[in-house]
């Protein structure tokens, strides 16, 4: 039972370490600000008057909004089918629903381009990003519907509502929070996406930042565009908080009260299976099939370089592991503090830790370039800096994994060990530490799996000559040599699938002791 | 009785309404003390403060010869050697029963696992009658077994005092009463003083040798179970510990004590007529004609033939039953002057349960207790 007593004291050493970790997470943005205003206000304003700017902002926002709505349109009915209808092979359909998560947007875009070389522009980007982001809606909404009671629906039915209207009125308050949170993730995914939109040649803020940085070396323009992008992201994050409002605290603890009724599969619901499986079909089945076909063409096999594939695989693993270590190290004090204590200071530290959610990879890459060049040029284009970038970008995933696990450990266990003669440190080593280990593993694996697929920051920060699977894939797609890129793409999918498999296993076992 | 745990003027929490306000309590080392109060009265906070898990804002606390809290200096919980049994047992889910019990015998998991095979752990398993359960994991135990393991774990280090935080609250009623007597026996065998916190009056009265009544962050009354039940210090105490009739009354000129009972005596006029009254509040006796509240337990009343009261409700509880009566309006009584119709509850034996609508008179079999209105 979490107790809030008036004189609860924050442990000072933990607060200090967590505050330092949060500050480290904020440094890149600070540097970006400095950089954007470096030439004085006038130049900042003149950059804002560039004619292409409204177009870029409009494209980014338009794409993000349309994708969010289409992802909701596919995700909500899919979630309903998975959670409230008795369907055969439910576990299989769950995997189908989650499958698009394994495929980064640029990989899906590349696979589709290999199959349909004429795809491009807004429609193509919209299609691919929708299919890739649908799981962000489907999975949390399905899990909320699964644990939520259907009693309200039944009450609504007895009060004269039709089944559909009863479903809406009875379950909306349970779906609202996960649907909003999922929409936020979709929106942030789309405005941060670089690879997918770039392949379809659809001009948005991220691609413009990359161009300004890479092609023209106009770094001030890149910094200004980044600030605009971050501003959009932060507005959306706060908008979601406002919209979520009190719903978050009101119903959480009562989700499991009451019964959850599962209906039988009505023939009229069968079209929902098509809705559920279309994303996986579009961004996993088609691209992988095409890649496999291309790979075994004579020309592609001839150009396959096993040594290069091997070294890229090793680089990818080392870098993502480094990123995971950085993220877990920064996340640990923040997550421990946030899981056990409340109040303004703790809230501020935790929010700083979640800030990277609103930081697109291009922006983190750019700000770390500025940071390294400004403070320690020796760090520029080192493996360490790239691992640091991964650590920053995916810090929220590590915090989430650790925090939820530590918060699930009753604080009375720690209290008991204190009364049994254990100092706070001994209590940590014997109780909280061992019990929260799965959380660290989960957080680390989540970071690793995401870092492997990261593209824009990797392109900007990698040491010269060092290739990862993602960058090799990218350089092959540039010259439209689809067959040559296929091995890297397939290796990336396989590599990302291993931690994902471990995650699902640890999840299954992790539930038992608590 | 020398006080073993001595708490003086303890305040916990800040602001206008601290959680605990000026708690003073003495516990002797032979005692099984119960702190009883409604939920939210601060009793769990008091327990946690004694264990050192919360900090007092002011006041002193001493255990034996050791100061726990004085002048804003607090002894860390791990240096107090006070056992604590939390409400939900809180067994360590990653350790088996023997390792849970051995937890306090070492300060690292490696040594705990070694200590789990020691004689002391075997002894404790026997003490709580769980000899065969040493290798079970906590999730394989029933609620009562888990509480017994938690108790053994708290006793392992031979603490000077064991704190029990509503240990029986989550259990079903039959198991609860079994476990109560078992825990009492275990603590007696271990010769350890215990402080129990509960919201269940029956539990406190039946288990403890010393009861402290807590209400809104202060201790209203402390004493033996018989004392606090039969001589409640305030109307709140009377109503919290059991059923109580509280009547408006006016004191009248004292007559000679008709029942020969002791105590400061006077008489009062209420819906029951003129009855002897024992004045419970400190200070001066009320002068004749003063308004007071009169408290009578339902078991201090009995039904006799008459017309003054009409039965409106009966609630049958097996061995006995509670009868609710209202003053019959046809009968003129001095108490008519009050705006509300007086209501009485009377405890009667099962075979004497009256019919609803029947009329009786009510007789007082013990003196009524008087309080300031």
UniProtKB/TrEMBL annotation, chain A:
Membrane-topology descriptor: Multi-pass membrane protein
Source species: Alpinimonas psychrophila
Transmembrane regions: 12-33, 53-80, 92-113, 119-139, 179-200, 220-239, 269-296, 316-339, 351-372, 378-395, 439-459, 479-503
Locations listed in the record: Cell inner membrane; Cell membrane
Stored PROSITE patterns: ABC_TM1
Protein's name according to its UniProt entry: Iron(III) transport system permease protein
A GO CC term attached to the entry: plasma membrane
The entry's keywords: Cell inner membrane, Cell membrane, Membrane, Transmembrane, Transmembrane helix, Transport
InterPro entries in the record: MetI-like, MetI-like_sf
Automatic annotation (TrEMBL), chain B:
GO cellular component: a single term: membrane
GO molecular function list: ABC-type ferric iron transporter activity; ABC-type quaternary ammonium compound transporting activity; ATP binding; ATP hydrolysis activity
Key words of the record: ATP-binding, Cell membrane, Ion transport, Iron, Iron transport, Membrane, Nucleotide-binding, Transport
PROSITE patterns reported in the protein's UniProt record: ABC_TRANSPORTER_1, ABC_TRANSPORTER_2
Segments forming a coiled coil: none
EC number assigned by the record: 7.6.2.9
Entry annotated with the keyword Disulfide bond: no
Keyword Cell membrane: yes
All residue ranges annotated as the ABC transporter domain in the record: 5-241
Record Pfam families: ABC_tran
Annotated InterPro entries: AAA+_ATPase (IPR003593), ABC_SmlMolc_Importer (IPR050093), ABC_transporter-like_ATP-bd (IPR003439), ABC_transporter-like_CS (IPR017871), ABC_transpr_FbpC (IPR015853), P-loop_NTPase (IPR027417)
Name of this protein: ABC-type quaternary amine transporter
Naturally occurring in which organism (per UniProt): Alpinimonas psychrophila
């Amino acid at each position: 039972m979490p107790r809030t007593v008036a004189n609860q004291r924050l442990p000072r050493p933990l607060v200090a370490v967590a505050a330092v970790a949060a500050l480290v997470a904020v440094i890149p943005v600070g540097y970006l600000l400095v950089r954007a205003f470096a030439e004085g206000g006038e130049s900042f304003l003149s950059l804002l008057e560039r004619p292409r700017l409204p177009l870029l902002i409009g494209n980014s926002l338009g794409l993000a909004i349309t994708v969010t709505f289409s992802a909701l349109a596919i995700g909500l009915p899919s979630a309903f089918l998975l959670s409230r209808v008795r369907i055969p092979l439910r576990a299989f359909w769950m995997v189908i629903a989650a499958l698009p998560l394994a495929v980064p947007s640029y990989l899906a875009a590349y696979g589709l381009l290999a199959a349909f070389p004429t795809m491009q522009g807004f429609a193509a980007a919209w299609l691919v990003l929708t299919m890739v982001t649908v799981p962000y809606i489907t999975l949390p909404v399905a899990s909320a519907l699964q644990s939520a009671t259907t009693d309200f629906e039944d009450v609504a039915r007895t009060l004269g509502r039709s089944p559909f209207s009863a479903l809406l009125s009875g379950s909306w308050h349970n779906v609202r929070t996960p649907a909003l949170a999922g929409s936020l993730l979709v929106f942030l995914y789309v405005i941060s996406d670089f690879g997918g939109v770039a392949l379809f040649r659809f001009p948005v803020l991220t691609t413009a930042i990359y161009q300004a940085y890479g092609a023209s070396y106009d770094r001030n323009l890149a910094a200004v565009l980044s600030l605009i992008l971050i501003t959009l992201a932060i507005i959306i994050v706060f908008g979601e908080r406002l919209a979520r409002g009190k719903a978050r605290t009101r119903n959480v603890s009562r989700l499991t009260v009451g019964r959850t009724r599962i209906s039988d599969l009505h023939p009229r619901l069968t079209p929902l299976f098509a809705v559920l499986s279309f994303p996986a079909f579009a961004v996993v089945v088609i691209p992988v099939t095409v890649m496999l076909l291309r790979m075994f063409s004579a020309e592609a096999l001839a150009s396959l370089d096993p040594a290069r594939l091997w070294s890229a695989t090793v680089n990818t693993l080392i870098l993502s592991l480094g990123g995971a270590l950085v993220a877990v190290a920064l996340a640990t004090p923040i997550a421990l503090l946030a899981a056990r204590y409340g109040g303004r200071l703790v809230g501020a530290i935790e929010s700083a830790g979640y800030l990277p959610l609103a930081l697109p990879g291009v922006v983190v890459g750019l700000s770390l370039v500025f940071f390294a060049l400004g403070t320690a040029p020796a760090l520029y284009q080192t493996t360490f800096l790239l691992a640091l970038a991964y650590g920053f970008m995916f810090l929220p995933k590590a915090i989430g994994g650790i925090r939820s696990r530590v918060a699930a450990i009753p604080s009375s266990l720690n209290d008991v060990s204190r009364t049994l003669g254990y100092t706070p440190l001994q209590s940590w080593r014997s109780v909280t530490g061992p019990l929260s280990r799965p959380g660290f593993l989960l957080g680390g694996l989540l970071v690793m799996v995401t870092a492997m697929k990261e593209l824009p920051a990797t392109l900007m920060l990698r040491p010269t000559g060092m290739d990862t699977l993602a960058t090799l894939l990218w350089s092959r797609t540039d010259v439209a040599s689809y067959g040559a890129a296929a091995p890297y793409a397939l290796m990336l999918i396989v590599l990302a699938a291993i931690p994902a498999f471990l995650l699902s296993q640890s999840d299954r076992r992790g539930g038992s002791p608590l | 009785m020398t006080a073993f745990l001595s708490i003086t003027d303890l305040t916990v929490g800040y602001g206008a309404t601290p959680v605990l306000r000026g708690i003073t309590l003495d516990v002797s080392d032979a005692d099984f003390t119960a702190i009883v109060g409604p939920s939210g009265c601060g009793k769990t906070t008091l327990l946690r403060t004694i264990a050192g898990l919360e900090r007092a804002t002011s006041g002193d606390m001493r255990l034996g010869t050791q100061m726990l809290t004085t002048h804003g200096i607090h002894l860390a919980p791990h240096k107090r050697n006070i056992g604590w049994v939390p409400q939900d047992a809180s067994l360590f889910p990653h350790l088996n029963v023997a390792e849970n019990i051995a937890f306090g015998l070492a300060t690292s998991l490696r040594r705990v696992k070694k200590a789990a095979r020691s004689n002391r752990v075997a002894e404790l398993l026997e003490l709580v009658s769980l000899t065969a359960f040493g290798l079970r994991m906590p999730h394989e135990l029933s609620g009562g077994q888990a509480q017994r393991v938690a108790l053994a774990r708290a006793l392992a280090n031979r603490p000077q005092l064991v704190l029990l935080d509503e240990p029986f609250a989550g259990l079903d009623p039959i198991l609860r009463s079994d476990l109560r007597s078992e825990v009492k026996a275990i603590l007696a065998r271990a010769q350890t003083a215990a402080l129990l916190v509960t919201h269940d009056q029956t539990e406190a009265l039946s288990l403890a040798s010393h009861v402290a009544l807590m209400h809104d962050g202060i201790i209203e009354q402390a004493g033996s179970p018989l004392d606090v039940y039969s001589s409640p210090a305030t109307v709140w105490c009377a109503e919290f510990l059991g059923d109580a009739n509280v009547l408006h009354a006016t004191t009248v000129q004292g007559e000679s004590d008709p029942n020969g009972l002791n105590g400061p005596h006077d008489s009062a006029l209420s819906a029951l007529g003129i009855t002897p009254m024992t004045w419970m509040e400190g200070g001066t006796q009320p002068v004749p004609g003063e308004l007071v509240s009169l408290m009578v337990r339902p078991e201090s009343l009995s039904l006799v033939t008459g017309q003054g009261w009409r039965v409106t409700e009966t609630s049958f509880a097996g061995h006995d039953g509670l009868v609710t009566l209202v003053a019959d309006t046809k009968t003129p009584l001095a108490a008519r002057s009050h705006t509300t119709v007086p209501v009485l509850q009377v405890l009667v034996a099962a075979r004497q349960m009256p019919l609803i609508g029947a009329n009786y008179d009510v007789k007082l079999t013990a003196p009524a207790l008087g309080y300031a209105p």
